[in-house]
Design a protein that fits this description.
With 992 residues, the protein is of the alpha+beta class. Helices cover 51% and strands 18% of the residues. It is elongated and about 165 Å long. Keywords: Membrane, Transmembrane, Transmembrane helix.
Length: 992
């Protein structure tokens, strides 16, 4: 029974499906096909409803009235003289708006019936006719009204001539025209003219009804689907209708209403311009993608600019002036559009383009026909039906193009939907949709795998089931911000994903939430690690310099007392040098661990150098900080550091400063650094403390102020030079050599010596600019006062190590030497021994260039560094300046005497001169003479002098004030002539 019921139901369903298919095929294929076939058959073979036998073209004799002053009698007389000349059937007014007189004979169409003369020009504005025999008025008319036997018909006027009994044999008429008008006349019988008028009305109703219906349908469809291209198409269809109406001559009305004649010319001009712009706009919208790919949008832009010009011309020019502008601009636009269409046909070969090409071809051919007809009298279209066919066919073809475009867009959307669905399924990130209650509507495989969600159950789960508390509210707030915002949130404890981190993007769409989710746990861990490394030392896990500076800045903003400890390891370099960096790294780790074990947990500990640590002691008074630092010194220095089987003893020095509210970060670090350096050098307990207001603290503050003043990439005001004489022991009164020393006069009037100025300039990085200023100033001074320096053989000028390592500085000073080349021979550039040996090759090149320029080189502070006599022979210096520490104590310590004696002998054997500085008493001077030193410099000879004193001095010995020293120098002058002569010989052979 059940099986029978099943088969019965199956047969019923198959029968129903067949009927549905049959009805569908009948409605979609058969009926439209029959309608189309019947339309074609009726159009080709069925007789027309208002068929007429046609008209007779009347021959005209035409007389232009350029002055608009002829009377009917004068015009008739002038035309009578032309009767022997050939007549014309069609006369062009050539855009003239002055009157035209024309004379014609009235033909007999049907015996015994009146003849009707039609003046079909749609451009005719006025018409008036007279009986040529009697000049009796027959009637007149214009676009506002008619009288007599003249009445309006179709696009023009008609004249009713009575039956032949009383009818005139000839008629004289006067007409005025606007635009590209043609003067012609047609003779009709009353019956045929009535049928022709009905045919005209039928065609106008057909085109108006068809295009308006199509335009309204397209417009409504466009509004419903929000397709603005079709709005343009609907407006273009109306423009096509008006253009066809103009061509047929019934554009004086709109949907059965008469348009005021005064507005017709402006309306026609506006119609042409607007239709042009709509055509270009529709073309651009339909083929925007293709034109963008072709790269010819600039050509379309030219056509668009043409439309703007045409619109301006329509608003400002008279009709007769506008028509030539219309022809020129529309011809250019047609050429460009034809080129672009041909290009699109060749490259795209799409059906949309082909349909649009066909539509535009009909439109352009119709317009081209009108232009040729108006301009040259060449008529390509004849009769009233052809504009109808042109308008309807072009509109239908454009509709086909639009429909094809819609089909292509729908197919493209279908493909995109398929691609989107496939992308949704294979996307590596989680994609999902939630309803307004937070329940899952859709979820792609990536999200289900990410959240361990089964395919069948996700629709029953809520968003908050998988994420941390408050995640649903966070998601809603994120969706309100839009798709650009992003949120990171954690997983849920219940699902075991609390350690996971997710990146979320969401937006509202159609009442739902569309969102994407990515698992960024590894990225979050990496970012956290990067954030940690940005302010922490990876070796010791302490703060790095950036972290320390931030901690100091934060503490400086607090009002609570605090201190800053600067920790430096004294023997750490030996560990690295002897046992390698791995052992050194282990020691640093233990130092950091010991430090954190001693200080409070809320202190910030950081490593800012190889073996330098900082401790920001927050909320701590200076006395408490001192106790902690003493304990820290003991912990760091007492017990050895065990690394493998080795144990290292490392001492620590600490500089502790009491800091105040608002102190700058760099000032705090610099003060602590200075205290730490003092602790390393002089403190037995390895701890130096700077309290607020202490002398050392104030002194360091002044040094920092000086560094800041010199670090502004400009020369500070107050720099000046002094000169300390250098006396030759061979000829004390025959020489006036000296060393140039830098001084700085502070804003408070105090004068700072060269040492502090140079140290501050080196810390600020501005030493090269100061050295360049010193050299330029000295060279300029020597050049100005060379006539007063007859006894000067050399002028010593110090160069810092920072300047010698500055390539730009080196180029600048040698350029300066080239400018002062004649006086470079006076210069003796002093470079310290350690700087000279730091880069031996660079020093050798520098010395060679100075010698080539005529200058001299002296090695300053010789003996103070780690002297290597192996390299000394490679430096072709001219003099050695013995370090003053040996000179000042040589009379008290025989070892110093021996060292100075060895240096002098070394210099003599290497062909160099020796200069002893810091000579402060006559005994030292006498000892240096006995050893054989060539030159001496110090307070016993002269203190640094102003430049004016140098210029007025007779020699370096003239500055001596100590009697014992004067007696010793005088003893050196006997016998004077021999000594002077020996000095001159040494000058020529030696240093000078």
């Amino acid at each position: 029974m059940e099986l029978a019921t099943f088969f019965s139901r199956s047969r019923y369903m198959r029968a129903g499906s067949f009927i549905d298919w049959l009805l569908f095929a009948f409605s979609v294929y058969l009926v439209p096909g029959l309608i189309a076939a019947a339309t074609v058959v009726a159009f080709l073979w069925a007789p027309r409803q208002f068929e007429s036998n046609g008209s007779l073209v009347v021959n005209l004799h035409v007389l232009p009235d350029k002055t608009s002053s002829l009377t009917p009698a004068e015009a008739l007389q002038a035309l009578s003289g032309q009767l022997q000349a050939p007549s014309t059937r069609r006369y062009s007014t050539r855009l003239a708006e002055t009157p035209f007189w024309f004379l014609f004979d009235v033909p007999v169409i049907k015996s015994g019936q009146p003849t009707l003369i039609e003046f079909p020009s749609r451009h005719a504005q006025t018409i008036a006719c007279w009986n040529a025999s009697t000049l009796a008025p027959l009637g007149q008319g214009d676009r506002r009204g008619v009288s007599g036997k003249i009445s309006p018909i179709k696009a023009g006027f008609e004249l009713a001539v009575d039956a032949p009994v009383s009818a005139p044999s000839a008629v004289l008429c006067r007409g005025t025209f606007s635009g590209p008008a043609y003067l012609n006349a047609l003779a009709w019988s009353a019956h045929d003219l009535d049928r022709s008028a009905l045919d005209f009305q039928e065609n106008s109703a057909l085109i108006a009804g068809g295009l308006l219906t199509l335009a309204v349908f397209v417009f409504v469809t466009a509004l419903i689907n929000r397709e603005w291209t079709y709005v343009i198409f609907a407006a273009w269809l109306v423009g096509n209708l008006r253009l066809c109406a103009n061509a047929m001559g019934w554009d004086m009305e709109w949907i059965g209403r008469i348009i005021p004649p005064d507005h017709m010319q402006l309306l026609r001009q506006a119609t042409f311009a607007v239709y042009y712009m709509l055509t270009v706009a529709l073309f651009g919208q339909l083929f925007r993608r293709e034109l963008k790919g072709e790269g010819f949008r600039w050509m379309l832009r030219i056509v668009q600019y043409n439309g703007l010009l045409m619109l301006v011309a329509a608003a400002t020019l008279r009709y007769a002036q506008f028509i030539p502008v219309l022809w020129a601009l529309s011809s250019l636009g047609m050429v460009v559009l034809i080129f672009l269409l041909a290009r699109l046909v060749w490259t795209t070969r799409s059906r949309t383009v082909l349909w649009y090409v066909a539509s535009m071809a009909v439109v352009l051919f119709s317009i081209f026909s009108e232009v040729l007809g108006a301009a040259f009298g060449i008529k390509l279209l004849f009769g009233g039906v052809n504009p109808v066919i042109a308008a309807l066919s072009s509109s239908m073809m454009a509709a086909f193009a639009i429909a094809e475009q819609m089909r292509a867009d729908r197919e493209r959307r279908r493909r995109m939907q398929t691609e989107l669905r496939n992308t949704y399924d294979v996307a590596p990130i989680g994609l999902f949709t939630l309803d307004e209650n937070g329940r899952f509507v859709r979820a792609n495989p990536a999200l289900r795998a990410m959240l361990d969600m089964r395919k069948g159950e996700y629709r029953d789960r809520h968003w908050k089931d998988y994420f941390e508390p408050g995640a649903w509210g966070s998601l809603q707030a994120l969706a309100q911000k839009g798709s650009e915002a992003e949120l990171e949130l954690g997983g849920s404890l219940e699902t075991g994903t609390a350690e996971r981190r997710y990146s979320l993007k969401a937006t509202h769409s159609n009442g739902w939430i569309e969102a994407s989710l990515q698992d960024v746990t590894e990225r979050s861990k990496a970012i956290e690690r990067l954030h940690f490394l940005a302010e922490h030392d990876p070796l010791t896990a302490s703060l790095n310099r950036r972290g320390v500076e931030r901690a100091i800045a934060e503490q400086s903003d607090e009002n609570a007392p605090w201190a800053l400890a600067y920790i430096d390891l004294d023997r750490f370099k030996l560990v690295n040098d002897l046992f390698g960096h791995r052992a050194g790294d282990e020691v640093l780790k233990q130092v950091a661990a010991r430090t954190r074990s001693v200080v409070r947990s809320d202190y910030s500990v950081g490593r800012i150098g190889g073996d330098e640590f900082i401790c920001v002691m927050s909320n701590t008074g200076i006395d408490d900080a001192i106790e902690q630092c003493r304990e820290l010194v003991t912990v760091l220095s007492a017990a050895p550091y065990q690394v493998g089987n080795c144990a290292f003893q490392v001492k620590a020095s600490i500089g502790l400063v009491e800091c105040s509210h608002g102190v700058r970060v760099q000032d705090a670090l610099s003060n602590a650094d200075g205290a730490c350096r003092e602790a390393k050098n002089v403190a037995h307990g390895h701890l130096v403390t700077y309290r607020k207001g202490a002398a050392a603290f104030e002194e360091r503050a002044k040094e920092l102020m000086l560094v800041e003043t010199l670090g502004q990439n400009r020369l500070p005001p107050g720099l000046f030079l002094v000169m300390q004489p250098i006396m030759s022991l061979a000829a004390p009164t025959a020489s006036l050599d000296f060393e140039v020393l830098l001084r700085w006069r502070a804003p408070d009037g105090t004068t700072l010596p060269a040492g502090k100025v140079i140290v501050a300039a080196e810390e600020s990085g501005n030493i090269a600019a100061i050295d360049k200023w010193v050299l330029a100033t000295v060279l300029d001074w020597i050049e100005t006062n060379r006539h007063a320096l007859s006894k000067t053989r050399f002028v010593c000028v110090n160069l810092s190590g920072g300047s010698l390592n500055d390539e730009q500085f080196m180029e600048d000073i040698f350029a300066l030497f080239a400018r002062y080349r004649p006086i470079v021979r006076y210069l003796c550039l002093e470079i310290t021994e350690s700087v000279a040996l730091h880069d031996l090759e660079n020093t050798q090149r520098f010395i060679a260039r100075v010698h080539d320029m005529g200058g001299k080189i002296a090695l300053d502070d010789f003996g103070a560094g780690y002297t290597s006599f192996k390299y000394l022979k490679d430096l072709s210096a001219d003099a050695l300046k013995i370090d003053g520490e040996f000179i000042r104590t040589m009379c008290a310590h025989p070892a110093d005497t021996a060292i100075v004696e060895a240096i002098v002998a070394l210099a003599r054997n290497l062909g160099m001169r020796s200069i002893a500085e810091w000579v402060e008493d006559a005994d030292t001077l006498r000892a240096l003479k006995e050893i054989g030193v060539d030159y001496v410099q110090g307070y016993v000879i002269a203190r640094p002098q102003e430049s004016a004193a140098i210029l007025t001095a007779g020699s370096a010995a003239s500055f001596i004030e100590d009697p014992a020293t004067q007696d010793f120098v005088n003893s050196l002058l006997e016998p004077a002539p021999r000594i002077e002569e020996e000095y001159e010989i040494r000058v020529r052979a030696g240093l000078h």
